[in-house]
Design goal:
The complex is a heterodimer of chains A (305) and B (187).
Chain A (H helix, E strand, L loop, with lengths): L3 H9 L5 H11 L3 E5 L2 H10 L3 E4 L4 H7 L8 H10 L4 E6 L3 H9 L4 E5 L20 E5 L2 H10 L3 E4 L9 H19 L5 H8 L3 H10 L6 E3 L6 H9 L5 E3 L1 H4 L4 H13 L4 H7 L27
Parallel strand pairs in A: 1-2, 1-8, 2-3, 3-4, 4-5, 5-6, 6-7
Chain B lengths: L4 E4 L5 H10 L4 E4 L2 H5 L3 E4 L4 H11 L1 H10 L4 E4 L1 H6 E4 L10 E6 L10 E5 L8 E5 L4 E5 L4 E6 L2 E7 L2 E4 L10 H8 L1
Parallel strand pairs in B: 1-2, 1-3, 3-4, 4-12, 5-6
Antiparallel strand pairs in B: 6-9, 7-8, 10-11, 11-12
The chains are: A alpha/beta (305), B alpha/beta (187).
Chain lengths: 305, 187
């Protein structure tokens, strides 16, 4: 017997590592991946139940505040976080900056996020991710973008949302766009697929795969603007298989408490009674920025090609 | 009651187990609460992060419920994280585990993700090798006399059984080979 996912993995495999890369994403499902900037943060995140941490020099809210060029973190800082916890440690490279990616691989990070939160390094290309042993996660706003990243070798997709705002509207927009486009491809006639591939700027073979399976070729997580347990549960209900929380935790009044509550909410997203209980008395959330008040030039999600 | 296999679904690759059981025609369901556990007569604990599960098991009350069912003879199989949680001791760490398997396990025994790998291994009772997927996998470093080793890789114990408790360091649910699932269903 073969389930769809397994059959596809075999067919799609251009490297022997494919199943291992997607496999680690499978292990993270139902969990919360938290942005951390110090080993102390990392320990708080692990203790609160994070399935992985994203090692950063500044959370996205501070990247927004300080401006300038945002780059890969100092390896010393990444090593410090790796030594502080036993859960997987992820780190970000700039879009298209394959040397930063090579450095992160040499540091043995468990996942690389080729991220729009950092300043892009290539105006047209992303990293050729099939060439790496370490798996990559990439952001996407729609199905075409998600499948282009999968074509390059991303083993996990996350909706981009709008990082560092604490405003969930863009995460919702992107998740709804991806799921409705998947439904359309899945229910289309076979003779529509090439036209759809052209319209979405997506690799034809991956459009065929989505048509066959009715889902993305890789796990689909959510990121960008999640600040409360209810936000996390909302994204899970809309089809996310796990969530990334960036500034939402360590920019809030009581990070440990909020982190634990978001972990419970993500695992039990269908249980409103539990959500009501864990949402109580969490202290101040991050202040946040309405995405509608941002100029397009201030939006991070538009980065990526 | 039709035999029903529960898959602990608090976090991890539980859907892969459910997909495989479904394809095998086995009645199976996700377990996120004590109520859902009572509907099952055996349990799979999937891969995931053991530090996360420790918290979610305790907050849901499933830690005690699973232990009490196990003591009444419910078969349990743990893959990767699941095997860690079944063990008596996690090497070098003060971390929750059920202690149902008289063994000491080492987490991330092969290293970080870049050292994850696949290998064909001999599995006791199978007439051909099993293709095993190891992802940041643990190993069993020592075990008591009640525990039987079912598979090893490179001299390291990667599958064990003690009466109705089964542990594998690797992920049969990520392959198309149903033999370990069949073995568990017969336990």
């Amino acid at each position: 017997m073969e389930t769809n996912g397994q059959a596809n993995v075999t067919q799609r495999s251009i490297s022997e590592d494919w199943r291992l890369k997607v496999g680690l994403a499978e292990m993270l499902k139902g969990g919360v991946i938290m942005d951390v900037v110090t080993p102390e943060h990392a320990r708080i995140a692990e203790k609160a139940g994070a399935v992985a941490v994203m090692a950063l020099e500044r959370v996205p809210a501070d990247i927004r505040l300080h401006g300038g060029v945002a780059r890969m973190s100092d390896p010393e800082m990444i090593k410090g976080i790796q030594n502080a916890v036993t859960i997987p440690v992820m780190a970000k490279c700039r879009i298209g900056h394959f040397v930063e990616a090579e450095i992160l691989q040499a540091l043995e990070v468990d996942y690389i996020d080729e991220s729009e939160v950092l300043t892009p390094a290539d105006p047209e290309r992303h990293v050729w991710k099939h060439g790496f042993k370490v798996p990559f996660v990439c952001g996407a706003r729609n199905l075409g973008e998600a499948l282009r990243r999968c074509g390059e070798g991303a083993a996990m997709i996350r909706t981009k949302g709008e990082a560092g705002t604490g405003d969930v509207i863009e995460a919702v927009r992107h998740m709804r766009a991806i799921t409705s486009e998947i439904k359309r491809v899945h229910s289309s006639r076979e003779d529509d697929l090439m036209a759809i591939a052209k319209e979405l700027n997506a690799p034809f073979e991956l459009i065929q795969e989505v048509h066959r399976t009715g889902k993305l070729p890789v796990p689909n997580f959510s990121a960008g603007g999640i600040a409360t347990p209810a936000d996390a549960a909302l994204m899970m209900k809309l089809g996310a298989e796990a969530v990334f929380v960036g500034s939402g935790i360590f920019k809030s009044g009581d990070p440990a408490r909020r982190a634990s509550a978001i972990v419970e909410a993500t695992a039990h997203y269908n249980d409103a009674v539990l959500l009501a209980r864990v949402s109580r008395d969490l202290g101040e959330p991050m202040v946040g920025i309405n995405v509608s008040s941002l100029d397009e030039s201030e939006q991070l999600a538009v980065r990526g090609w | 009651m039709t035999p029903r296999v529960g898959v602990l679904a608090l976090q991890g690759d539980f859907q892969k187990h459910l997909d495989m059981l479904g394809a095998m025609g086995v009645e199976a369901g996700a377990v996120r609460s004590v109520d859902q556990l009572t509907e099952c007569d055996r349990l799979i604990i999937p891969g995931g992060e053991s530090t996360t599960l420790e918290i979610l098991l305790k907050s849901s009350g499933l830690d005690e419920a699973i232990l009490s069912r196990a003591k009444k003879g419910m078969p349990i199989w743990g893959t990767c994280m699941g095997m860690i949680l079944l063990a008596r001791e996690i090497e070098g760490r003060k971390q929750f585990s059920f202690g149902l398997l008289d063994a000491v396990v080492r987490r991330n025994a092969f290293g970080r993700q870049v050292f994850s790998f696949e290998a064909d291994i001999d599995f006791k009772g199978f007439d051909s090798p099993f293709h095993a997927v190891f992802i940041r996998a643990p190993i069993v470093v020592s075990y008591g006399s009640e525990v039987e080793e079912l598979a090893e890789y490179d001299g390291k114990t990667v599958a064990v059984r003690q009466a109705k408790i089964l542990g594998t360091a690797f992920h049969p649910e990520l392959t198309a080979d149903t033999r370990v699932h069949e073995l568990f269903l017969k336990m």
